[in-house]
Amino acid sequence: MTSETDKHDAAPATDTAEAAAQPRPAGEGAAYFKGGGSAGMTAGDRVSPKSADDRFAAEDAETFGWAGADAGAGDRARIAELEAENADVKDRLLRLAADMENLRRRTEREIKDARTFAVTNFARDMLAVSDNLDRTLQALPEGARDSGDAGFKALVEGVEITGRSMLSTMERHGVRKLQPQGGRFDPNFHQAMFEVPNTEVPNNTVLQVVQDGYAIGERVLRPAMVGVSKGGPKAAPAAVEPAVDAKPGVPDESSKDA
Where is composition skewed (Basic and acidic residues) in this entry (predicted)? Predict the structure, then answer.
């Protein structure tokens, strides 16, 4: 004989079996439940996988700022902005590097010039002393050296030794004496004082030196005062040295500090 309690326990089992035997609606997969458990689940609590994916995608777009095509356009605009900024920074760095290289070369040249031409004013003043020694020797009368006076001869030799020593000292400091005699007149180093008619030598040939000229480095310390020929044949043009091809990427002297 079945008691009321047994009937009550058997009823939920029967209902569960009947619910399991009922066909499940098409397209309904694994159920998604609200909350953390399955207790109290109803038909309204079930959510299809497709609806759940759409909901999660919408939440992600809202959280991370994704908005499909609009997000892609924004990303491309940001990338273009960063590329432009990168190009601007690179251009500034290249210009800064070029300025620093020009500054380094200019500083090196200025230091070299300062060392070379530091004695310019002193050397120019000493040229007057050298000229006086030369005038002393030129003022000697002809035959005075052969007069037989030992003291006079020693004096003349002393003046000559002093002049040579002075020239040697100036050469050690970069000052050199020009040698224009017999050469072609160069307006950069010579100063023409008069012309000498002469048809045997090319025109503008230095025939006489009135005053010696000096140079320090590649600069003229004092131009040589000379007399040049006139009436002779034209001087042959100076030979042009072949141009030297510069190495790729290596600036030549004419392109420095450009």
Answer: 1-10
